[in-house]
Amino acid sequence: MQHISKLPNVGTTIFSVMSALSNKHNAINLSQGFPNFKSDQKLINLVSQAMSSGYNQYAPMPGNLELREAIAKKFDLLYTTSYHPETEITVTAGATQAIYTIISAFVKTEDEVIIFRPAYDCYEPAIEINGGKTISVQLHAPRYKVDWNDVKSKVNSKTKMIIINTPQNPSGCIFSEADMLKLQELTKDTNIIVLSDEVYEHIIFDGEKHQSACLFSDLKSRSFITASFGKTFHNTGWKMGYCCAPKSLMEEFRKVHQFNVFSVNHPMQKGLADYLQVPNHFLGLSEFYQEKRDLFLSLIKDSRFNFKPAQGTYFQVLDYSEITKEHDVNFAKQLTINHGLASIPLSVFNDNHKDDKVLRFCFAKTDDTLKQAAEIINRI
């Protein structure tokens, strides 16, 4: 049989490549973005309790109502804004499913979607498979600031959607209030949908505040916000997330969602609904991860790597340009094979694989793991 691939240029993701290499060479894995410590036992117990209590059949298509109500309360607490739990919040199989479904619901052939690079790698394939065209705005190391004049020059009558990610993976940078106001101004009085990927909303450092799309009234009226319980509660393998949007947009989302997954894991939804009743379960996350970021950076401050401290996420970008001129993919592989430390090269997320000589390291690890990794970095 012969088939024409709908994604001819897509191969194995760099995350799978580097994790496999890490496993093969028994390296410390700071490549793929997952914690190597346990989720809160209280949450695990609540999910087990939900199973024992009979929450083992299909959840409602939009999600367990108690969980949607808890999410609505969280938005009110954090951002003094509201989403209606019945019509404007949907629970999803992780944020990636939410992102794919949003794009599938709205992007048609020849529609253009603007993304900011380095960009997380699930955006472009979803655009392409739905017949859309990706329009890139390339950001530059080390601070990855947005040139809004460049963005404006790429907006036209074909622009259907703009995807932002703040705090941003893989760069660890954030969109400021000024950035969000520029985005609001740029999309005002248009039919452009904004997809705001906010999976690291609770991991932001140095006293900065997360500038959610829902804080800006006109932006909120045209935006989807996607979020991840896996990133927040250290259980990425659960693949639990949600999205929020005005009713008219959410109605279109659910048309696709119901035939994509219909509904997601019910006992986990019930357990999360109960766990969210205590806001401290997510309010202390920034402090928790800032301590890990600061520990990691203090341990490698005298190394030959250069860095600007991450503003958010649990990723730190390190510049190795004073060590070697090797291409970042090759250097990342050598670091794994020869030194026993796995990272992610950022060129794979850039236009034309632009190589800034930087690698991304995940610090969502135990302190012992970070100390072992720092010893390796300091020897290079």
UniProtKB/TrEMBL annotation:
InterPro entries assigned to the protein according to its UniProt record, in alphabetical order: Aminotransferase_I/II_large, Kynurenine-oxoglutarate_AT, PyrdxlP-dep_Trfase, PyrdxlP-dep_Trfase_major, PyrdxlP-dep_Trfase_small
Keyword tags: Aminotransferase, Pyridoxal phosphate, Transferase
Pfam family, one: Aminotran_1_2
Known cofactor(s): pyridoxal 5'-phosphate
Aminotransferase class I/classII large domain residues: 27-377
Origin superkingdom: Bacteria
MF terms in GO: transaminase activity
The protein, known as: Methionine aminotransferase
Organism, as annotated: Lacinutrix iliipiscaria
Classification lineage: Bacteria, Pseudomonadati, Bacteroidota, Flavobacteriia, Flavobacteriales
